[in-house]
Amino acid sequence: MDRRAVLLAAAGLGALSACGRGFGGGGDDAPDGAVVLNMVWWGDNTRAQKTQAALDVFQRKNAGITVRTEYQDSAPYKDKLATRFAAGDPPDLMAMRMDSLREYADRGALLELTGLNMDGLGENARALAAVSDRTYGVPSGLNSIGFVVNRTLTDQFGVRIPDGDTWSWDDLGTFARAVTEASGGKVYGTGFDLFTLANLFVFTRQRGEDFFTEQGALGITAGTVQAWFELAQRMRDERGMPPAGFMDEAGASAAQSYIAAGKLASQIIPTNNFLSYNAAAGGNLALLRMPGETQGVRRGQSIDTPALWSIAAQSKHPRETLRLLDFLINDPEASQATGTTRGVPPNQQVAAAIRPGLAPDDQVATDYLIGLQGETLPRSFTYPPGGSAIASSLETIATEVEFRRQTPAEGAAAFIAEAKKALAE
Amino acid sequence: MSVLQQTPVTAPASAPRRRYRRQDRSGYLFLLPWFLGMLFTIIPFFASLYLAFTDYNLLNPPEWIGLDNFREMLADERLMRSLRVTVIYTVVSVPLSLAAALGVAMVLQQGIRGLPVYRAIFYLPSLLGSSVAVVILWRYLFGVDGVINKGLAWLGIAGPAWTTDPSHALTTLIILHVWTFGSPMVIFLAGLRQIPAAYYEAASVDGAGPWRRFRSITLPLLSPIIFFNLVQSLIASLQTFTQGFVMSGGTGGPADSTLFYNLYLYLRGFTQFDMGYASAMAWVLFVLIAVLTAVNFLAARWWVFYDD
């Protein structure tokens, strides 16, 4: 039986949940009606416990459906997912990376989510997962990036934190230099990766450009890449930023971060990780907006998602999987259980409903996001295929520039050439 | 000697023949796990040969494109960079680690008390060397403010960024590789024991010094062992993956300076969904290793000396 037909027949999950197990239609469920769904995602142990708590609620409400989950670290996740698809054994529900969405969707591997109720999602949230006018994913939560500042360190060195709503990139430079000087070089004022796309996206938009355009072309110009490299080089020369080679992406977790180790006074983080960073850094972090938001041509920050939920086109149980997805997105009980481990719930009513019950740190990140959502921000566009090759060439070139093996201008020209080549393939 | 070789071509009588057959059968029975295991090697082996001539993105069926993958390889700058990294790594680290292995083996051969303990200590790194845990430990040792740099700072030397500076990252991996000389060392130790002590005694009587004894007795008699270790290390080194993967967080960075051939192959296959291209790369590596090994065997005629 055609899966799309089944979905059309299902038409609206509200009706579906009401019908419960007895809902008609074909399918290959076990004779006793038991359905086992496989759900995979990446993350840590805390996220696992919170996810399981939500699934327990789901299984209580949906007798006969069992959800079997698997999770691992983000790096091996991507490979494992690709391998499972290649082996013809895709999971039913999966966390999908933003930069992989089109690689899967364009190749027909994902189910078009026509039957899912997304009324509660804002314009920005829905646009995140749109591939032309089709939807192959739902944001698992909303986040953005923000600047965290370790107030324990700034208090210790007597450095004033700039106003996080209006500060400029120059203010960041001044602040960073002041911290490094006051600490006698023991602590650097700031540090962030130049090749993390999310960071560069913000800077690019502030200059009136898009990194990837709506048509999936390269929108960033060499001038912007050069300015980005020069910005960091200036801060490095002034010693506000650590010297080349100091930053090492090995310790990606909050506990291993430089801000937790007290080596950096500020850094950029995804806001849904605020809780864990704050815990790791001793509970005294301030969450600021990105610098340059009020000085640039336009706003740079955007509403993003750490991951999308997608369903495999080959799923044997698309109806049940859709029901599970509907639960995760639209049922306040699910978000109460998961907290903001995947970001602020994309459904605005759900987000408002659970906010009062959240832990104080979760509220900080939630308020930050709710504030951003109320503003007019540029939209972020789906990564075109070839995005992963672009990310890797940016990483290579940023390192070359960091060690002064290339000037910012040379690096920028090289990056644009490589990126155009990757998109043409 | 194998069971099969003992079976005469023509069995003289019927009774023994039955016995031999039973023997054959048990031989094959014991080989059965190997045959089953081979299936898991042979099927992917031919599958990858087929995929090498296709465009295969893991999600859709492979599409036959003939030699296109191989043509693309010729123009692929990153591939050439990865070859260069692998060749530099091999050319520098294989001789160094073999020299270290032979050196330590000869010291241990002198008959130190507690030899098994030393042997174990030196052998341990080669068991752990390419494991994830050790590479991570290595990162901490060689971090910007790791143990090594703290030691250097104490001596008044400003240590470099060992793992994050593109000019030093490969050197750090070469040091790691040399450190894992234990397994060729154990083989050298076994080889050294085979050399009759009488040769050395006779040479000493004739007035040969240590260097002369090493050049004229140890090296020639040990040459089959050196040859074995050389071929083994060369093949292993060309297939290096884990060290580069873990040290660079799976990217081959900083700035592609640890982008080993196999790491690039993996990146193409699994992160860029280019399994056809990755398969083609695997076959090129296979042919490369086969040719190098053949060259090694040919060259061996000139310097490997068999004493029997």
From TrEMBL, chain A:
InterPro entries: Bact_solute-bd_prot1 (IPR050490), SBP (IPR006059). The keyword Plastid does not apply. PROSITE patterns: PROKAR_LIPOPROTEIN (PS51257). It comes from the Bacteria. Keywords: Sugar transport, Transport. SUPFAM superfamilies: Periplasmic binding protein-like II. This is Multiple sugar transport system substrate-binding protein. It comes from Catenuloplanes nepalensis.
From TrEMBL, chain B:
Belongs to the binding-protein-dependent transport system permease family. This is Multiple sugar transport system permease protein. It is a multi-pass membrane protein. Keywords: Cell membrane, Membrane, Sugar transport, Transmembrane, Transmembrane helix, Transport. It comes from Catenuloplanes nepalensis. CDD domains: TM_PBP2. Gene3D superfamilies: MetI-like (1.10.3720.10). It is found in: Cell membrane.
